[in-house]
């Protein structure tokens, strides 16, 4: 090891403040961030950091000075030093009860070197697919999933969740082998189809069968929604395909609002109704009535 006093450019009688100022000046000049790609500066920065770590610790500095006075000079070599002194043996010799091998045992893990080490790698992420029915996606709720490693997690599916939406659970992935943070769990939501409802953006669509009488004369009918049944007024003279809107009865949006429910009326005829058949056989459409008028070319 080089003489730490010479490395920092201070005298052996330098005060703690003088040592600190010398280190700060050199560290600023030699820091790898200020000298990218400069190996010489990087090596000097390491030595400066090691020297400061030793001399900034009063106890270790005193032990180092004692070791130097005992005949161990700069370089920590194994050959005889000046004056024919034999090499100082850290492992076997003690001075004033101190094991001098401990003085230098951790110098090469100084904070200057550690700052250049990459952070521990994050654990691996895991992916899982969660299937919920249409109403569960609409209303939201908590669901338990079992991850590939056997762990059970409770997943909060937000109201209005869409098919294919991915939920991120931070820190619920695999543990890091290097002591870093755990990975994340990504839960893909799959929404199963509903018997009556379908989704279009944030709107819910529904085809509602009505009778000929309800279509012709108008009526108030009960309509299913994702919040439960509500009343809907069917206008008189409605045809199949007429679209009615129930505002605020759709899926929750990202902005905290609700989409609508779009109700398409579908006139449904009974399979067998003699009275209706007899009436229609004698019924004469009004003059000028042609349901396919707009389709003529």
Automatic annotation (TrEMBL):
The record's annotation in Pfam families points to: DnaJ, DnaJ_C
Query: Which GO terms label this protein's molecular function in UniProt?
Result: unfolded protein binding
InterPro entries according to UniProt = DnaJ_C, DnaJ_domain, HSP40/DnaJ_pept-bd, J_dom_sf
Q: Which GO terms describe its biological process?
A: protein refolding
CDD domains noted in UniProt: DnaJ, DnaJ_C
For this UniProt record, give its keywords in alphabetical order, as a comma-separated list.
Chaperone
Domain annotation J: ranges: 3-68
Name one cellular component (GO) term: cytoplasm
Recorded protein name is: Molecular chaperone DnaJ
Which species? Maricaulis virginensis
